[in-house]
Amino acid sequence: MKIKGVMKVASEIESKYGQSDFESAIDRLTFKNSVLVFITDTEGNIKYVSDEHDSGKPPKDLPEEAIEQPKRNRPLPENFNEFLQKLNASTEDYISYKVEEFKGPTLVYGSKLDNDTLLYISTSIGPINLTTNILKTQLVYVTITALLLGLVVSFFIAKKVAKPIIKITNSAERLAKGDYHVQFENGHYAELDQLAATLNYTTNELSKVEKLRRELIANISHDLRTPLTMIKAYAEMIRDISGEKKEKREAHLQVIIEESNRLASLVNNILELSILQSNNEALQINNVNLSETLKKILLRFGALSKFEGFEIKANIDYDLYVLVDEQRMERVIYNLMGNAINYIGEDKEIKVNLIDLGSRVRFEVIDTGKGIPSEELNLIWDRYYKAKTHKRSIISNGLGLSIVKSILEMHQAEFGIESAVGKGSKFWFELRK
C-alpha cells in the first residue's frame, strides 16, 4: 500500500512538472503523504526540496547566504549517490527500493523528469509496519475476547433454552409411561408455549380415553358377569333341584335362554359398535321407502305393546324415499323406539312421526317420561349411559344410543334430542331424500 502511495505521488509530480504551480503541488503532496521530495539535476544539485515538516523553511545549519534559497539548500540524503548509480544503471523509467536506516526501513523512489532533472522521493515504512503489527496484535486479542464472550453468552442462552425443553422431555417420558396427571410447563418462548399447550391438550384427551377404557372394561365385565352368573346358578339348580321336575326345569331353562340371549345381544352390540366406529364396513346405500320400513318395525312392537300395556301412536307420511342403508336405518329406529319404551311415562303412550319436509325426511319418537336433566343431554350418546329414570327390565346394555349416533353420522344425518325434566323426551333425525 505504501509503494502504491509513493508511485501515485510521483505520478502527480511528474504531471505537474513544468507548470506554474509545480512547487506548491509538491508541498501539498509531501504534507499530505508524509514523504521527502528532492528535485535535482543529474549532478545532484538541488533545484527544489520539500517534506511534510520543513516545506518553505531553511535548515538551521545552513549559512546566511543560503537562506535566500531555502528550497535549494537542504542537505541531500546520505544514500543519494547510491540512488544516482541505481537510477543511471536502470533500464526502466523509474527505480524503487528499500534502504535500512537506524530509524527503520525507508522506501526510495526515483525517476527522470527530463534529461537534466531527477525526482527523488523517500518515506519511512517502519511506522506503518509497526502500526500493522499493533493492529494485528489487537485484532487477535479482540477476536479471542469476542470468542470467549460469545461462548459464555451462548452457554447461558443455551442453558435458558434447553431448561424448558428438558422439562418438556421429562414430562413426555412420564406421559409415555401412563402418567396422565403430568403437566407441561410453558417455556417462555412462543414455540415452546404452543408445544406445551398442545401436549397438555393431548394429555387431557388421553386421560379421557383412559377413563373411558376403564369404564368400558368395568361395564362390560359387569354386564358379562350378571348373565353368566344367572346361567351358572340356574344350571346348578337344574342339576341339583329341578332336574326331575319338568315345570321347574323348563322355567329354569327359560331363564338360562333369556340370559344367554342377553349375553349374545351384548356381545353383538359391542362388536357392531366397534365395526361402526372403525369405519371398516361400508354402507349399502339404496333408495328405501322409509314409510314402509317404519310400518314393519311398528308391527314388530305390536305384540310387545299389548303384552306390556302401552300404546304407540304413529303419524306417517306415505312413500317417503331416502338414500340409506336399510338394515342400519332399521337398527336406528328400533333402538330409538326401544329407548322410548324403556323410559315411558305414566300414560303408557309413545308417539312416532315420519314427516315430509320437502328435501328432507324427519323421524321423531316421543315419550312422556320424566325427561332428562339439561346437564345430562350431551351424555346420552355415550357408551353405557343410562338415565336414572329407566322404567323397564327389557334387554338394555347402554350401547343402543351410541350405535344410533354412529350410524347417523355415517349417513351424515342431522339428529338430536329435546327433553325437559317432567315433560318427556323427543328423539329425532333428518335424512336427505
UniProtKB/TrEMBL annotation:
EC number from the UniProt entry: 2.7.13.3
Record keyword Cell membrane present: yes
- Keyword annotations of the record: ATP-binding, Cell membrane, Kinase, Membrane, Nucleotide-binding, Phosphoprotein, Transferase, Transmembrane, Transmembrane helix, Two-component regulatory system
Q: Where are the transmembrane segments?
A: 139-158
Basic and acidic residues compositional bias, start-end: 49-71
Q: Does the keyword Transferase apply?
A: yes
Known catalysed reaction(s)? ATP + protein L-histidine = ADP + protein N-phospho-L-histidine
GO terms (molecular function) for this protein are: ATP binding; phosphorelay sensor kinase activity
The lineage's top-level taxon is Bacteria
Matches recorded under InterPro entries: HAMP_dom (IPR003660), HATPase_C_sf (IPR036890), HATPase_dom (IPR003594), His_kinase_dom (IPR005467), HisK_dim/P_dom (IPR003661), HisK_dim/P_sf (IPR036097), HssS/ArlS-like (IPR050398), Sig_transdc_His_kin-like_C (IPR004358)
Give the protein name, as stated in the record: histidine kinase
Q: Which GO terms describe its cellular component?
A: plasma membrane
Pfam families for the chain: HAMP (PF00672), HATPase_c (PF02518), HisKA (PF00512)
What subcellular locations does the record give? Cell membrane
Membrane topology, record value: Multi-pass membrane protein
Q: Region Disordered: which residues? A: 49-76
